[in-house]
Amino acid sequence: MTSPHDPYRDPPKAIPLGQRLYDNWLLLLVVGILVMVLIYTGWGLWEVLTLPLSALP
Amino acid sequence: MRWIHRVCPVTGLKIDRQADLLIRAHGVAATVALLIGGIAAVLVLLTRWQAVHLLDAVWFYRILTVHGLTMLIFFILFFEMAVLYFTGPVLLNSRVPAPRVGWAAFALMVAGAVLAEWMMWTGRADVLLSSYVPLRAHPLYYLGIILFAVGALIVTFQFFASLVVAKRERTYEGSVPLITFGAATAAIIAVITLGHGAGIYIPTFLWSLGLMDVDPQIYRMVWWALGHASQQVNVAAMVSVWYLLGALTVGSVVLNEKISRTAFVLYILFISLASAHHLLVDPGFGPAWKVVNTSYFMYMAVLASMLHGFTVPAGVEVGQRLRGYTQGLFGWIRRAPWGDPGFSSLVLSVVVFGFVGGITGVTIGTEQINMIVHNTLRVPGHFHATVVSGTAMAFMGLTYYLIPLIFRKKIAFWPLAKWQPYLFAGGMLFFSIFMSFAGGFAVPRRHWDITFSNAPFDLQFSPAVDLVMGVMAVGGLVAAVGGALYILITVWSVFFGEPIREGELSNAHVRPAAGAGESATAVA
Amino acid sequence: MHTGMQSPRGVWWKPAHGSEKVWFGLAFGWSMVLFAMMPLWHWKGGQNPSGIRGKVDPAAYRARVEEFIAAYQVGMDGGFPIVEPPPGSDIYMMGQMWNWTPVLKLRKGVEYTLHLSSVDVNHGFALYPINVNFQVVPGYDYALRITPSEAGDFRVMCNEFCGIGHHMMLGRIIVVDEDGEVPGDVAASQDAGVSGEGVASAEPAGDGAGPAGGAAVAGKMAADGAGRRGQEATSGAAVRDHAAAPGAEVSR
Fold first, then answer.
1. Which pLDDT value is given to residue C50?
2. Greatest CA separation found in chain C?
3. Which residue, among C232, C179, C226, C234, has the nearest Cα to C202 in the 3D structure?
4. Tell me, what's the ipTM?
5. How many Å from the N-terminal Cα to the C-terminal Cα in chain B?
6. What radius of gyration, in Å, describes the C-alpha atoms of chain C?
7. Using CA atoms, how far apart are residues B61 and B64, in angstroms rounded to an integer?
8. Contact A10 C10 (CB under 8 A)
9. Is residue B448 within 8 Å of C166, Cβ to Cβ?
10. How far is A30 from chain B (nearest CA, A)?
11. Residues of A in contact with B293 (CB under 8 A)
12. Which of A16, A19, A56 lies at the smallest CB-CB distance from C141?
C-alpha cells in the first residue's frame, strides 16, 4: 500500500502544532491534572466549604 | 540463559529482559488477585441470590469488601502496570530505565495488597471498597492501600521515564505508537486518580489513628476521584488493548492518528470528572458543579469513546481487507478469526462495553435519572458491563498473546480457550442486564437480605424480582465458569505449558498478524 | 498503513477520511444534544434532587429531631414514635445505626420540607416503592420539598452500607388521604384484577426513558405497588378503587 506520496515515509516537513502538542506527554499530564483539580476537586471543595450552617427550622 | 534483551520473532520488537520479567511478575500478581476476587465474587453472588443465601451477614459484607478491593484495585492495576511495561519499554524498542526501582515498586504493591487482604480477611476492615468515613477500619488497612497506590504511582513514573529514555536514545522515530499513546493516557489518568487516592487515604490513615478529622462529604468527593477515575484508567488501558488486539489478531490499521489521538486527549482532559456521578444526590454540592462534572464537561469523554467505537472496528475492517478478505460488504466479518480468543475477546469487549456499559453509564449519570438509580443494583449492573465484560475481557484476550510472546509457552487446553471469551462475556451480559433490571425494581446494592426478615417493618419486592435475580445469578455463574477457565488455562500454560522454541511460533495456536518475523536471538 | 504498534513518522496530523468526519460530526452533535438536555431539564424539568442544603452538627440535628418528635408524636409503631406534623411544616428524619427515626405520618396533597441527615455514618435514603434515593451524610442537612401525591404505606430502606445491621435498617412513612385513612394499610384492601395487571406490567423503567424518566418511574412504581398489594391480597374482597399506586413528587 506504499503510494508515491506515503506521508509516513516522506522527509519530515514542519510538524504541525497539534502534533507537537500531542507528542508532549508532560504538557498533557499537567493539563489533565489541572482540569481535574480545578473543575472537580477545587470547585467541589469550595462548594462544600462554603455551605452555610443549616437553620433547622 | 542470561540475556539483556531478545528479539520477538513475531513482532520484531526488542524485548528488554527486565521489562519481560516485570511484565511476568505483574501478570502473575494480577492473576492471583483475579483468583481471590473471583472466589469472592461467587460467594457474594450466591448470597445475593436469595434462594441460596450462602453467607451470613458478617461474612457477606466482609467478602464483598474483598471482592471490590481485590478486583477493582489490585487485579486491574497489577494488569495495567504490566501493560505499561509492555507499551513503554517494549513497544518503543527501549529498556526499563530503573529496573531496581521497578522491583521496589512491585514489592510495595504486593506488600500493600497483602496487608489490606490480611486486614479484610481477619475482619478488621468490614467497610466495603468505598470505606466511607466515619465507618472505621484498622489503620493497617488504609496503610496497605497507601503502599499499593504509592507503588503503582512509581510504576507510572517509570513509564514516563521510559518515554524520556527511549526518545533520548532514539529507539524509535517520529511519534510514539498509538498504543503507547493510549497507555500514556492511562498513566496520566492514573497519576490523577492515585494522587487523589493518596490525598484522601493519608488523612484517613491519620484519622484512624486518632490524629485528625476527616469530613465525610469531602471524603466522598476525593475518594471518588480515586474510586471512579481509577476505572477510567481502565477505560484508557482497555482502548489501548483494543488497538493492540486488533493489530495482533488481524493486523488492523490506524485509520487516522489525529482522530484516535484526539479521542485519547479528550479522555485525559475530561474523563476523570465523571467521579461526580457518585455525588449526584449528595447534599454537599450544587447543581452547577454536578452538571458540569457529570457531563464530563459537555460529554467530551463520551465523544471520545464513540470515536474509538468507530475507529477500532473500522481499523479491523481495513486490516482484514488488506489481508485479502475483500469479498462483499461483510466478508471481512465472516472471515474473521472467531476461534481466536484474542479476537473474540476484542469484539465482545467492544460490544458489551459500548452498548451495555457505556449507554447505561451515560444514562444513570444524569441528575434526574440518578435519583431513581443511586445505590440500587442498577449501578453495579452498569459497571460490571464496563469493568468486567469490557476491561477484564480485553485483558483476558491480551493474555492469550502475552503467554506465547512473553512467557513463550503454548496456550494449554486450546479448545477450551476458544470458548472462554464467549462464556465469560455472555454470562456477564446476562448478569449485568438482569442486575440492572433488579435495580429498576429499587433493589438496593450492598445489601445482605432484601427480604428484610429482621427489620422492624415488612417490605416485599415485586415477585418479578426473584425471577430477575435468579437469571442474574445464572448469568453470573456462567461468567464465573468462564473466569475459572481463564485462570486454569493461563496458570497451566505458564507453569506446565509446552515451551515455544525458537522459530516455532507458527505452532502456537495464536498467529499474530502484525510485524515482520525474525527469529529469536539471545544476546549475551 | 500501519498498526497501532508502530511509530508513525513525519507528519500524521492530517485531515480525516470522509467517513470518519461524518461519524465525528454525528457523535459531536449527539454529545451536544445530551449536554443541552442537562441544563435544560434542570431548569424546565422540575425533577431536580437539589433540595435545600446546609451543614449541621450531628448533635444539634439529633436534638432538633427529638424536639420534633416531642412536639408532634401521635403514637408508637414497632418501637418507633409516629409523628404527625402540621401541614406545610419542616419535618425531620434521622438516619442512625440502624433505623430511620421517626415514623412520619403525612397528609396527601400537602407540601412538607423533609430534612434528612445522619448522626453517625453515611446512610442511603431509599423511598419504596417510589424508588427515590438520596445520600444521607453525617454533618449535612439535605432538605427536600415533597408533596405526597398518593396515600399509602411507604418504606424507607437504607441503601448505603452502614455497618453490620445495614440490612435491618427500614423506616416507614405513612401518607393518609383526605379522610385520614391509609388505603394500602387496610387489611381488606385489595383489588385482584388490578394487582394481576400490576405484576404483568411490573417492568423496570427503560433507560430510553431519558428526560421523561420521571413519568416512567411513576408508572413503574404504580405497577410495583399494585404487585406488592397483590401478594398480600386474599380472595374476593375488592373494596376500594385505589388501584392508583402511591406516587410522590419531589421538587425544589
1. 59
2. 83
3. C226
4. 0.91
5. 9
6. 24
7. 5
8. yes
9. yes
10. 9
11. 39-40, 44
12. A56
